[in-house]
Amino acid sequence: MAHAQTRSIWDPQIVRTAVTDALRKLHPRTMAHNPVMFVVEAGSVLTTLALVRDAIAGRPGLGFEVQITFWLWLTVLFANFAEAMAEGRGKAQADTLRKTRTETVASRLLPDGRTETVPAARLRKDDLVFVKAGEFIPADGEIVEGVASVDESAITGESAPVIRESGGDRSAVTGGTRVLSDWIKVRVTSDPGHTFLDRMIALVEGAERQKTPNEIALNILLAGLTIVFLLAVVTLQPFAIYSGAPQSVFVLVSLLVCLIPTTIGGLLSAIGIAGMDRLVQRNVLAMSGRAVEAAGDVHTLLLDKTGTITLGNRQASEFVPLPGVTERDLADAAQLSSLADETPEGRSIVVLAKERYGIRGRDLADQHAVFVPFTAQTRMSGVDIGGREIRKGAPDAIRRYVETGGGATTPELQAIIERIARSGGTPLLVAERGRALGVVHLKDIVKGGIRERFAQLRAMGIRTVMITGDNPLTAASIAKEAGVDDFLAEATPEHKMALIRHEQGDGKLVAMTGDGTNDAPALAQADVGVAMNSGTQAAKEAGNMVDLDSTPTKLIDIVEIGKQLLMTRGALTTFSIANDVAKYFAIIPAMFAGAFPVLMALNIMHLQTPESAILSAVIFNAVIIVALVPLALRGVAYRAMSAEALLRRNLLIYGAGGIVLPFIGIKLIDMVITTLHLA
Amino acid sequence: MTSNGWLQIGLYLVLVALITPPIGRFMTRVFSRERTWLDPALRPIERLIYRSTGVDETHEMRWTEYAMAMLLFSLVSMLLLYAIERLQFWLPWNPRHLPGVPPELAFNTAASFTTNTNWQAYSGETTMSYLTQMAGLAYHNFTSAATGIVLAIAFIRGIAQRERDALGNFWVDLVRCILWVLLPACLVLAVALVSQGVIQNLRPYDTAALVDPATATTTDGAGRTQTQVVRTQVIAQGPVASQEAIKELGTNGGGFFNANSADPFENPTPLTNYLEMLAIFALGSGLTWTLGDMTGSRAHGWAVWAAMAFLFLAGVTTVYWAEAHGNPLLTAAGADQHVTALCPGGNMEGKEVRFGIADSALFATVTTDASCGAVNSMHDSFTPIGGMVPLVNIMLGEVIFGGVGSGLYGMLIFVILSVFIAGLMVGRTPEYLGKKIQAYDVKMAMLYVLIFPLVILTLAAISVLWPFGTSSLANAGPHGLSEILYAFTSTAGNNGSAFAGLNANTPWYNLALGMTMLIGRFLMIIPMLAIAGSLGRKKRVPPSPGTFPVTTPLFAALLVSVVLIVGALTFFPALSLGPIVEHLLMLKGQVF
């Protein structure tokens, strides 16, 4: 699959396919899906017929008419080409995906315990299959027994194998991925043709693409505008006849095609396809275009603290000794007790001690050290070394340990513990025999740059809510440090669900990520639910997007892509309509220059001849579609700012720019045409 | 152009701004059924009306029911007016013994007054009896204005509503609008007008001896010319002041007399002229405040007001400029068009000396911005550009303050389109005051936008192609095209002002223009109410910094551009063959 690999917009292979597709799309039934371009095609047919009629009648000097007809057809083809280009990129990705889908055989488990070998295509839902190292997993399913490392690079592009095991949140496996070690029993969860891989191929190919709600609404607007202009042009002929200046069908069709919003009409579906494509390039699969639009509308982001806002784990940030103990002694004791501790917290203590006091890790084996592992009963860990007995653990566990050793905890200790807890950290007590030495301050480390990211989101009117299992005190402190707008502490799936419902009750759209089975209801309830690919099948079914990389920060990217998609649509619509002003000034004086030479006063571009004026407008109208293909595929430049600022910026570029640019463009084309003596 | 002229125009806009909040606040209270100081007097009457008609004042209507009630009411009212017109010969208060109105004209007039257009294909004083004027026409002046206002209120309720399709009760809104808003306002205005000399009587017409007898030459059907010395003049009388007040306040525009507000008995002094112009914008402008009030966003109300005010200023500046500059051909011919102490300068053809250039230009802009149609000068006699502005004002959809009610809901349709077109550019699916604008709303808005040019352009195109259309023209060439375009635009926009020069009292024009008025009013109301119902059913998304701003100057500018671009793109080709080419030809020395 393409993964992060980006293709050049003008990839020659895609362009070649797009050219032939553009011709194939001329079929009226295909064109009818796009009312604006359908009208252009009908107009082209009309001028072609008129051209044939004139040619048969032997009318001399049809150069202008031939060129108009040619450029009208080109307008249709350019629009088809834009759509084919967008589809082509998806198709190329689908082909890559298809190559990874090998025809596999499966060992199906029979009720009596024997296995039989069947082609993967014959597996049905609820069949049990046995997969061992080196084999491909034949279908999507849930592991019911066993644990294995699986190579999922076919789906995610990530080459490092992942662990999949029965029970819990990592039990889902995807058809087409390969077991690297051990064996698993898998219950099949999808019928052939409906697997995740099949769906992915269909999605990126655009085969399943349905128009999104906003796209439908926009299409109605464009169709309505087309009818208005059709009306204006059709009734212009009677007024022209009344004024003694009847017009030829070539001129009328040219005027019509220039006025109707062909730019956005030709690029609209390309914009939609490209939006989905941008998601795919960031390894996110949207199950529907509707979800992408909803992403742009999101008001509230529910973000899991761990992995999104903070680095995965707490880290030691400070050694706070009790009176009578030096900081160095405390650090030394803490490091000793952590040398065998492979948890990230333990490792961070070793590192901190080394950084602060240069205390190097020692080899415990030489000193006959005995490592005391953490157990659920003692809730502490430590080391016995050379007669010393060092323990570290949660405050109450260590307090009990100290008291059994004959010591007592002091008010000073209590004060330190409280201070650390209030600041959002986790206190870890270190003690030796009956004496408490001090406290290690474990801290959640907020990811760099995340605060700025949240500030941008806030400027765009998006509220961020941190979801965490921490106690409210800790949560509040991290929330403050990270700059989120709100937090949900001691969160359970039920709390999460209630929060989503509450936000939605106010009319807000909510986005969240989740991976566990217990996240499924919330994922389904959220307007944008992004399931981690590493998560359970239930979660993936419930969400409307899947993040193949399983990085929770992706949610922010998704929102940005959704917004960019909508902005591109709006920008090109505005641009398209604004363009009409210049086209009127080109065509209207040209039309009536014969009957009313005074109307040339409106020819403010000083276009050379009436023919060159009309031709230039038609050519500009066609060429601008191709010129904007890269913008449609890439999306307009996205910046995080308030709606007011965004609107001002985009209105200036695409509204005012849309009025000015065609004046320049048409004038330039007119100069080329007259230099070449084309009209 | 004089500083006095600019001062009057500037002061006018300031006064409009000043009366907007109190009028708007009062209407909010009336339609939200809150207590007002008029309640002690009016509540008993209101209750009596409901009791005698069986209206349940607590019943809330869905948009379909609201629309049906409105259509039914309008249909019955229209038939009633048709009957009065046809039967006026046998009815009382007909001192001139005027005969029954012919069928096409009666239909045209009934359609005209029911739709708040007040297009008049007749001269009031020689066609309509006092009873027809008062019971038929004045009744409609009130009800059609009230209908427009309550429709706007229903639309506002749709926006303000949360997840309910309940737009209020048409009958209750109608009664309260007439009792609380229109009648008291008209009473005050009528008294003010009478104090300035506007007449109010039921006397038969006066006959006065001419100080300076005139000789008139007439040609009869057989081509014989007859010369006659005229020594007396018939001076028409009637209950003018009462009709005059509602004519402006309800943006009806149908004059008691043919000369409309140019007639000294309708509009005697510069003060009455100013009052009448203020009355035309009063309720339409007040409704923008009501919009802000009821939707909880006063700033949005002002933004809409600002967009309207900008378009108004642009229009009046253009007309004033064009008329004050006058006709270059006259200058070339040696006529002095400069402003002096004794001469208003500029193009005074078809203008009253007591109003002059500035107040005529202002009146023409105001009456066409609002779909009023009262005139104090003849738009046909304006310079091509000066005459194009009134035409363009109507072509923009009568949304610059507009007809009472219809101006606001028309503008709100443009707001919805603006939000839809540009709204995507902020990276959200379009929403208007927290309501998502979706496919259904866009479909209805486009239908609304489409019907207007459809009826104007199609019927005008038919009229220029066949003799039944062109034979009514007094002028050839581009000016003739302007006259036909103006007639259909004015009727479709429910404005009712005439460009003159077109004899509209023919079977084709009476029927075609009558249908145009009905379509321009009722066919457009249905999609509008459908949007109100659809918006009402939607959730209201709370505003955030990411919400499309509808309260800022930027939004007002966007709204202005959308109104101009949609209007211009639709009508530019037709205009270029009418007033634009006429203007350019005039500069070259050719007139029509």
Describe the model:
- In chain A, strands 1, 2, 3, 4, 5, 6 and 7 form a seven-stranded antiparallel β-sheet that branches. In chain A, strands 8-20-19-18-9-16-17 form a seven-stranded mixed β-sheet, sandwiched between helices.
- Chain A has 679 residues and is α+β, with helices and mostly antiparallel strands.
- In chain A, a hairpin with a 2-residue loop joins strand 12 and strand 13 (388-393).
- Chain A is 52% helix and 17% strand.
- In chain A, helix 10 (289-297) packs across helix 21 (554-592), helix 21 (554-592) packs antiparallel against helix 22 (610-627) and helix 21 packs across helix 24.
- Chain A is elongated, with a radius of gyration of 34 Å.
- Mean pLDDT of chain A is 84; it is low at 1-5.
- Chain B is mainly alpha-helical and 592 residues long.
- Chain B has 19 helices and four strands.
- Chain B has helices at 3-31, 39-53, 63-87, 103-114, 124-127, 130-160, 170-195, 240-249, 270-295, 298-325, 328-332, 356-369, 384-395, 406-423, 439-465, 467-470, 477-492, 507-537, 553-587; strands at residues 206-219, 225-235, 431-432, 435-436.
- In chain B, the strands form two sheets. Chain B has a two-stranded antiparallel sheet with strand order 1-2. In chain B, strands 3-4 form a two-stranded antiparallel ribbon.
- In chain B, a hairpin with a 5-residue loop joins strand 1 (206-219) and strand 2 (225-235).
- The mean pLDDT of chain B is 90.
- At the A-B interface, helix 7, helix 10, helix 21 and helix 24 of A face helix 14, helix 15, helix 17 and helix 19 of B.
